[in-house]
Amino acid sequence: MRKYYYNKLTAGELINLTKRPAVDFTKAFETVRPILNDVKKDGLKAALNYAKIFDLFDEEEIRVSEKEFIDAENNIDKKSKSAIDLAAKNIEKFHRKQYPKSYSVEIQDGINCSREFRAIENVGLYIPGGNAVLPSTMLMLGIPARIAKCRRVVVCSPAKNGKINYPLLYAAKICGATEFYKIGGAQAIALMAFGSSGIPKVTKIFGPGNQYVTAAKLLASIDQDGAAIDMPAGPSELVVIADKDADPIFAAADLLSQAEHGADSQVVLLSDSEEIVNRINSELVLQLNELPRKEFAEKSLQNFFSLITETLDQAIEFSNRYAPEHLILNFKNADKYRSKIQNGGSVFIGGYSPESAGDYATGTNHSLPTSGFAATFGGVTVEAFMKSMTFQKLSKQGLKKIAPAVETLAEAEGLLAHKKAVSMRFKKFK
Amino acid sequence: MRKYYYNKLTAGELINLTKRPAVDFTKAFETVRPILNDVKKDGLKAALNYAKIFDLFDEEEIRVSEKEFIDAENNIDKKSKSAIDLAAKNIEKFHRKQYPKSYSVEIQDGINCSREFRAIENVGLYIPGGNAVLPSTMLMLGIPARIAKCRRVVVCSPAKNGKINYPLLYAAKICGATEFYKIGGAQAIALMAFGSSGIPKVTKIFGPGNQYVTAAKLLASIDQDGAAIDMPAGPSELVVIADKDADPIFAAADLLSQAEHGADSQVVLLSDSEEIVNRINSELVLQLNELPRKEFAEKSLQNFFSLITETLDQAIEFSNRYAPEHLILNFKNADKYRSKIQNGGSVFIGGYSPESAGDYATGTNHSLPTSGFAATFGGVTVEAFMKSMTFQKLSKQGLKKIAPAVETLAEAEGLLAHKKAVSMRFKKFK
Asked: Read out DSSP for A284-348?
């Protein structure tokens, strides 16, 4: 396992350590482009055709029926149901506070400007499937959409043997999803972005996915007839900053919980204590052997590295440059370092705040920016399901007061009709 | 000038009226792709090469000097200076209220979750140039960036004869822009997105531009090494809803102020009174002849249409489907219809609220979503220059309480290391 010393690295070497393995989307774009084009042209028919080829979907009905939702609610095991209920309650509690408030300003006498928010009416949520069962992602996207009061909440997720698992259907139901289609992959993204007869298009698509799903979302986002997207998604990441008093068992368990996601998951350990780094590294090897997903975690650990810094501030500086999706601050008085964290999707403070708590049940969102995008994007929020609008109301006197400024700037910009739209309003009264 | 009657149109015909003329980016993508690739590879050198070819730029120094800023401040004419100062003051006053507040929630005993915002550190602002002088756009982007406290605010705008005009430089100075480069077009977008030696890349690019600038922004937004963008930009638009008491002179002047932007500008008139529609149409012809930019306005009016509805509610319903960039409600008691407006970038209420007031000086932002994107995006805000982060801190007892839910969901999703990251923390104390 690689180990670096901050003070022995050049500035260039440090920057290289913040880089993620490049994901070349060129091939994925080429693969999904014809899928998007076909679905844009032939709608559901084309989407079903691809679902048949890629997912062996050969049902007649793609839409989940009311009966299937009721079955799920009646037959889901009690333990899963109460876990989903608790997670939903906490997610609701955390996200409700994000509902944006309107404001109004009296800019000058007779000039009132205000801002209000409205829900995006048609949104699409993509929930990956295959062998995984992901009710948590459904909650993370569906609850903010419900709080925002989106009119149509369309969910797409691939079926297994024609069926969607109970936990996912139950989670979709409590989120108030209005439509659920048994379809995954790029064809699902295309179906939501372009719509079809009986399935109106959505204007924004949320949710994680493999590289084909991501490529399809990216292409849809630059298509005039497509849909906006939540953020570009990449492999999941975790940075742990630990000091000498951190429990190596906890830190290793946290690193492995990220590493098990997949071979391309990124995990990084930062510390001002070489001793704890060595102890965590040994612990990693021990715990790794007990994991059912050992194969994934082992591959992911090939990209793993530790960086030994002189101070915790140096570790935070590196983490800010790295801009991790998840960041665990497993050191004394970590709470006091909050304001120093500039870039990071979700931050976990102290020894009893493992990432998996936030992944599932504390209420924060787990749809987070990866690949360094945490420097630019936040995770999914209620506001992401809404858009702002500004309103302004001027009285005759209010307009008169700013008329000279408007006229001067319009003239400077060579837009005389802009000037006239103001001067006309006073001319005839002269 | 085309005139339709709402009740005589089929649903399909109504939907067609909400469609903008398609902008095919295929060609623009092909044109700008090599520019992006070259600048990504060779940085400033490649960017300057394109600036030479497209803009005949042959200066040695691309960066605006401190002296040029001081010259601009000393030599700008007084009228422009005070117009810019007033606009800046109002924009600051309106946008300051957008600075997002942190919040903190005690989710359960021992589980504290919070959200905070941080400025995006490196942002790029594109200000179109050529023959136009656009200090207003500089203010609309630069002031929110200043309020957000972005560390680096990089501005690009093409020079004319090697110079940037005084109003734009003065506006950039009062916004606190940290760097200003004399370069426009796709090469400017590429330079900001990928950076160069001595010019670190930015991670989000804002600002309007022609189809090549927009195409370059779109491609940069789906490049892993590129930059996020504010929104997809298209030709400017205005919908006016007028009732029988609206002043036809005002309404016509407003429509023309939008039409003069360019041949592809979209203007639409909605009314429940055919008489006022006829009067506004006659007034349009009269006023058109007095405009210096008559040629643009005339071409734009070829796409213009009026729609006569039975009621104002019907007009609003159509406008919501159209989702205009600008919307003027020039009818009695328009204020009461606020909550019915679902989709629209900036809304102007009453007879004395012309669009040009908001374009320049009331304080609202004029960087707004076009092409129907107002259904999904809002205009530029302070929040657009920031990103959110979540923090969570659990006590041992807090984690213990949600442990069963986390463990159940992790197990359901087949992620055993996620489960262990929680159970490990209690195991050794058992």
From this structure: HHHHHTT-TTHHHHHHHHTS-EEEE-SSHHHHHHHHHHH--SEEEEESTTGGGGGGG--S-SEEE
User: In whole angstroms, how far apart are CA A406 and each of A420, B48, B84?
Assistant: 10, 35, 9
**Which A-chain residues 197-236 have CB contacts (< 8 A) with chain B?**
203-204, 218-219, 221-222, 224, 227-228, 232, 234
Among B122, B291, B352, select the one facing A416 at the smallest CB separation.
B291
- pLDDT-above-70 percentage for chain A: 99
The whole-chain average pLDDT of chain A stands at 95
Report helix angle B274-288 to A416-427, nearest 10.
120
Residue A430 has pLDDT above 50, yes or no: no
Model confidence at A329: pLDDT above 70: yes
Task: Tell me the chain A residues in contact with residue B256 when contact means C-beta distances shorter than 8 Å.
Answer: 417, 420-421
Catalytic residue among A95, A326, A355, A366: A326
Instruction: Give the tens place of pLDDT for each residue, B37-95.
Output: 999 999 999 999 999 999 888 888 999 999 999 999 999 999 999 999 999 999 999 99
Query: Which residue among B105, B132, B352 sits closest to A395, beta carbon to beta carbon?
Result: B352
Q: Among all residues of chain A, which has the CA nearest to that of B338?
A: A391
Residues B247-271 have pLDDT tens digits of 999 999 999 999 998 888 899 999 9
**CB distance A43 to A194 below 8 Å:** yes
Q: Are A316 and A231 in contact (CB under 8 A)?
A: no
The C-alpha of B305 sits at a distance from chain A's nearest C-alpha, in angstroms, of: 19
pLDDT greater than 70 at residue A429: no
pLDDT value of position A383:
98
Percent of chain A beyond pLDDT 90?
88
Residue A366 among the catalytic residues: no
What is the set of domains in chain A, with CATH numbers? 26-229 (3.40.50.1980), 234-375 (3.40.50.1980), 395-427 (no CATH)
* B133 has pLDDT over 80: no
Task: Categorize the per-residue pLDDT at B292 as very low, low, confident or very high, splitting at 50, 70 and 90.
Answer: confident
Q: Are B120 and B65 in contact (CB under 8 A)?
A: no
Beta strands of A88-158 (E only): which ranges? Answer: 103-108, 111-119, 122-126, 152-157
- How many Å apart are CA B430 and CA B206, to the nearest integer? 56
Q: Indicate the pLDDT class of residue B430, thresholds 50, 70 and 90.
A: very low
A18 inside 8 A of chain B by CB: no
Q: How far is A346 from chain B (nearest CA, A)?
A: 5
ipTM of the shown complex: 0.96
Between CA A258 and CA A297 the distance in angstroms is 8
Contacts of B19 (CB under 8 A, 6+ apart): none
Contact B344/B319 with Cβ under 8 angstroms? yes
Q: Where are the alpha helices (DSSP H) in B323-395?
A: 355-360
Residue B429 has pLDDT above 60, yes or no: no
Q: Does B47 touch chain A (CB under 8 A)?
A: no
List the structure tokens of A389: 């609008």
DSSP secondary structure letter of residue A64: P
**DSSP 8-state code for residue A383:** G
d(CA B190, CA B196): 10
Give the closest residue to A387 by CA, choosing from A20, A117, A178: A117
The answer, yes or no, to whether residue A151 has pLDDT greater than 70, is yes
Cα atoms found within 13 Å of the Cα of residue A284, Cβ hemisphere only = 27
Spatial CA neighbour of B420 closest among A1, A44, A290: A290
How would residue B148 be classed by pLDDT, with cut points 50, 70 and 90? very high
Amino acid making up residue B19: K
Q: Read off the DSSP letter of residue B68.
A: H
Q: Which of A325, A407, A413, A418 is catalytic?
A: A325
> Within 13 A of A102's CA, how many CA atoms are on the CB side?
12
